[in-house]
User: What shape does this take?
Amino acid sequence: MIFDFALIVDSIPKMLAGFWMTFELWFLSAVLGMALAIILLLMRISGRWYLYAPAMAYIYIFRGTPILVQIFIIYHGFPQLEFIRESIFWPILREPFGCAILALTLNTGAYVSEILRGGVLGVDRGLKEAGAALGLSSTHRFIYITSPIAIRLALPAYSNDIISLMKSTALASTITLLDMMGIARTIVAETYAPYEIFLSLTVIYLILTWIIQKSIGLIEKRMSRHVRSEA
Amino acid sequence: MIDSELTNIIQLENVDKFFGDFQALKNVNLSVKKGERIVVCGPSGSGKSTLIRCINRLEEHNSGRIVINGHELTSDVANIDAVRSEVGMVFQNFNLFPHLTIIKNLMLAPRLVRKASKSEAHDTAMKYLNRVKIPEQADKYPSQLSGGQQQRVAIARALCMNPEVMLFDEPTSALDPEMISEVLDVMTDLARDGMTMIVVTHEMGFARSVADNIVFMDEGEIVESNPPEEFFGNPKNERTKLFLSQILSH
Assistant: This one.
């Protein structure tokens, strides 16, 4: 086969036009997902069954089903329910963008809350006891001792999840959104050149992944400065 | 309130503590007056650590009464926090907060619990860092200090809360031999200044020179409690004699 470089040069700027859509999907669901994850985490470690049981069920359902299925249920399924069409959320759920953000948020929230929980469980019990022995309230202990240490412990696993979230945004193209993947599919449909187009798209995603990886690496390094001892 | 609870800063009456089926404390009675120095010793698993951990409720006792400086320990959370802020504790593994510099380790509780201003908390912290003789380490992280230095920081951190009582849970057991004396020196200084102390330790030299009373525990019970001369010179109980022969033989 002939590899059409001219087509690549031509189509990369077009796909980059979808970059902002990809970025918005990724960034908004990462932020909202983190908020959801913190709520789920607090429910999960509350020690009260009526809080941790629903959180566990939620996490099980959203980690246990494909995100594509979740997107389809929200986009194709919800509009069939009258109470959703009449709810105040309809203006958001009517739009594919709102549906994609919702699905990605609900999904990543479940994963990230488990990652955060791993971090919290990794905090040495002795440190919490030291806080207690100094008279710190349980809230103060959580904010000033447990959280900062847990975040540091959770970062490597979190970097995995946030990269995986960036790649999941491509699924939004299945519900008509023109993110980079959506645009690529349109170009392929016009040119019948899947090889060139998807290969260029691969390179773009790899660059994005590299940027995220590097940024988290820098944060990790900064948060670990207390671990490095003086040589 | 009974009279003895006014004169005694720490009072334990008939305290029992269970871990599942295992009874870690059996009918323990102990009273400590202000300024008194108590050393608790005994074989491992005898309940020494459990005893002092019950005093600031890191462990919850199952029956009996524990009264600290007039506050009886119950499940009342605010009361527990109040007692804890008056009782300093030093752990075997130091338990310094690894993500905070030394000075911030010392300032955290006074800022949050005592609502001290930043400069107040800083001044107090530097005062106690000077007292444990490592003011130059203020801006380092715990991992950059030796074990002996970390334990001295831990003592200073507890002192910053201006406690009525200090509890030490095997403070030198995790230290390399050459660092033990620097920590014991700080503790001896503290005792000389009149601090009320309960020290769980195997350092019999320290016990002999500092303690008003040595409490010997075995299998969750207080077997014997006597001043050092009596304790070392004329132990009454067979278990005490056995323990002393084992610990002093080398």
Notes: The longest strand of chain B covers residues 8-19.
